Amino acid sequence: MKQTIGTVVAIGLIATNVVVASAEVEFTSIQRDISTFAQISVGGEEPIFEQDQQFDFDLGVFNEQSSSVADGLESFVNGVANQASVVDPETGVQAEGFIFSQAVSTDPEVFGQGFGSSRMFGTFVVDESTPVSVALTFITEGDGRASLSIIGDDFNFYRFVTDATETIEDEFVLQPGAYDFSFVALGFGTVIEEVNEDASVAFQFGIGFGNVAGTDLPFESATAGLQAFPNPARSEMSLLLPASGATPESVTIFDSAGRQVRSFQAQSGETQLSWDLRNSNGQDVPAGVYYIRPEFRTDARSDFGLDSGFDSGSGSSQPIRAVVIR
Q: Under 8 Å CB-to-CB from 188, ≥6 apart: which residues?
């Protein structure tokens, strides 16, 4: 069951009618949800508020994105959340995704806040001693935070990360019984008196039952490849590189006429770049539509008709569309 609703009242509820069993592991409940909101308020003015949530109470694949944007009162606020995950009682849990929230304003009387969250909760039962492995990578910045836990009567696995990067691989044996597991990634982007703090989390994790935990999804994420946040952007845009697979050699930005505006070199393993909305000469780019493309090799021509040394068919992904507002 997948639903998209305009409120967040379903947060915190866990369906209990899911029963899918194997010889060793039985899931008795599962909930996955992503949620965003964006709000701008100033004394005496009608607040601007947008929100969105998507959720799922079934096993199998969940592959969704949520976005909320509030734009007005000399301010721009947004929240974005994504989760691509699969839950299978025979193999375990795999997930990847991100959250991003930002709030900016030129009015010192404005309070703005954006929010994004990506969550997973569930209960499973093992009927015999079961080896379990966990592999995770959390990359959190600003107010972003992420946690993963597995808790039973005599067992407790818990990891919490904020404003840091952490990679963990662990193995243990679960004794017969019921276990609760949860994953939460969230963050608030806030601006008050023109002082702002953003939040972002990129995550990838796997929980393997009786096997090595895998983190590569058996399907393509709804947001596989390069992502840009916020989008539209007023002052800065974060470029989130793919959480899995090859790191692009560079990321190139073109204007709507196909002219190269800016290019960034990406280091192996790098997950995020920042574009200050300036061109290669340090000048602010005008408002408009831009195309951002990761490049993987340097032996052909661009399909934009530019001599950039890249071939879009085999060396680069399709560009993503980004909007700059002034």
A: 101, 113, 114, 115, 143, 199
Q: What are the C-alpha distances in Å from 74 to residues 15, 41, 103, 194, 234?
A: 42, 11, 11, 11, 11
Q: Quote the distance between the C-alpha of residue 299 and its chain's center.
A: 32
**Domain range summary for the chain, segments of one domain joined by +:** 2-209, 227-324
Residue 302: closest CA among 254, 241, 270, 265: 254
Q: What is the residue whose two structure tokens read 């990406």?
A: 266
User: What type of residue sits at position 254?
Assistant: F
Give the closest residue to 82 by CA, choosing from 122, 54, 61, 121: 54
Please state, in angstroms and rounded to a whole number, the distance separating the CA atoms of residues 296 and 312. 9
* Of the candidates 134, 131, 158, the residue with the CA atom closest to the CA atom of residue 147: 158
- In sequence order, the 6+-apart residues with CB closer than 8 A to the CB of 44 are none
Q: Is 285 helix (H, G, I), strand (E, B) or coil?
A: coil
3-state helix, strand, coil in the chain (%, to 5): 0, 60, 40
How confident is the chain (326 residues) per 10-residue block, as mean pLDDT? 28 32 76 96 87 94 90 84 90 89 88 96 92 90 94 95 90 93 96 87 88 59 68 81 67 88 84 89 91 66 32 54 81
Q: Residue type at 285? A: V
What span, in angstroms and rounded, lies between the C-alpha atoms of 239 and 227? 6
Residue with tokens 């009162």: 73
pTM for the structure as a whole: 0.70
Do 189 and 113 meet the contact criterion of CB atoms below 8 Å apart?
yes
Q: Which fold has domain 227-324?
A: Immunoglobulin-like (2.60.40)
Encoded amino acid at 116, one letter: G
Q: Which residues contact 174 (CB under 8 A, 6 or more apart)?
A: 126, 129, 130, 131, 132, 150, 152, 155
How many Cα neighbours within 13 Å face the side chain of 51? Answer: 15
